[in-house]
User: Fold this.
Amino acid sequence: MHKVVPITLAVAAAVASTGCTKGAKAAVDPTKIVDSIKAQEAGWQKGYADKDINVLAGEYADDAVLASPGEPLAATDVERRKSLGGLISDPNFKLNFATDRVLVASAGDMATSRGHYSITTTDKATNKPATSSGSYLTVYRRQADGGFKAVEDVIIPGPAEAQAK
Assistant:
């Protein structure tokens, strides 16, 4: 009898945890997450247009890394704000970007967004506006509140193919 109780409890725990796992998997709606990420990136673009450092910095998780061309990795809030602030303080700054593809992990806890961008900044050599383009890849992680924040944001200069698959 003493052996039956622990075994019964172990089986009950296994069944309960398996049931929770199946329920959690069924609750993942990739389309809803894709739409949410796209809407979030539209808000992010508005933050750039408004040159709002708080909106921009708020898109990143505490442990996120921003990798911008020609700059050291920005791995803290202070470093990310410095990098973003330098960018948006440029009087010629303009940024347009668009999502080409969002992929969602089957568990619904991670997602990636790949897209293309065009940016205008002041050329340091000529002090005139210069436009360049490229691609980006952002990795998102679900947060405790259910939303997503960027944990890796990599900007890749060079020719960007719009709507590349």
User: Anything to note?
Assistant: Confidence is low (pLDDT under 50) at residues 1-25. The chain is about 40% helix and 35% strand.
